[in-house]
Amino acid sequence: MIKMKQLQVCTLSIVLRSFYILVLFNFFVSCNSDPRPRPKGYFQIDFPEKKYVLFDEPGYPYTFEYPAYGAVIKDSTFFDQQPENPYWVNLDFPTMGGRMYISYKTVGNKNLFSKLVEDAFKMTSKHSLKATSIDEIPVKGGPGVNGFVFDVGGNAATGKQFFVTDSSKHFLRGALYFDATPNYDSIKPVEQFLYKDMQHLIQTLKWRN
Asked: pLDDT tens digits, residue range 141-195?
């Protein structure tokens, strides 16, 4: 009887030791395993339907179509500076925190065509410190509407800029900014959505002679 009890105690001891060894093994394995953090995610954005209205204000030297979810506002200050003429406007997208700055200059003795083009390229190159790439894409709209779109990669302040001109009288430049710290991964969906509106603006732009 005593031998039977001793055998049971011995068996129980072996089982408990095996259990503790298994627990310790799993503990050390889990501690030494590589962590697998979840990838970053962003909120899903429900974009509005693409509908366009005509900007055709009396006295302005240009007309264009812009999205109905945007608002054209006359620009009284351009980055804390006075606009050169009254034809500078902002195209605001309040629900998406975006703004497209649109500046206009008349080509002439005061604004030489070559200097306007040079300045447009220089303004884009200022973002090269933050940019991972800058692609220069030729664009062509209606009659007398030719220029370039600048696709700036990385966390630059503006990822999409453009200028168009007839090379003799009209020169218009646009740049898309967001009211947020530049973060391409989070801004990209909205930027791509509004980039199509920028392209539509260029395609529908017309000069008033």
From this structure: 999 999 999 998 877 777 799 999 999 999 999 999 988 666 666 788 899 999 9
Burial category of 150 from C-beta neighbours within 10 Å (exposed 0-12, middle 13-18, buried 19 and up): buried
Tell me the two tokens of residue 166. Answer: 């007839």
The pairing of beta strand 170-178 with beta strand 160-165: antiparallel
Residues 151, 192 within the same domain: yes
Does residue 43 lie in a domain region? no
CA nearest neighbour of 64 among 163, 142, 120: 142
CA-to-CA distance for 42 and 26, rounded, in angstroms?
Answer: 35
Across the chain, how many H-helices and E-strands are there?
A: 3, 10
Q: Alpha-carbon distance 144 to 141, whole Å?
A: 8
User: Residue 71: CB partners within 8 Å, gap ≥ 6?
Assistant: 91, 92, 94
* 36 assigned to some structural domain: no
Contact 182, 156 (CB under 8 A): yes
pLDDT score, position 124: 81
What is the span of the domain harbouring residue 11?
A: 1-31
Which stretches does DSSP call E strand in 2-145?
52-55, 62-67, 71-74, 89-93, 98-106, 131-140
Same structural domain for residues 9 and 77? no
Three-class secondary structure of residue 149 per DSSP: strand
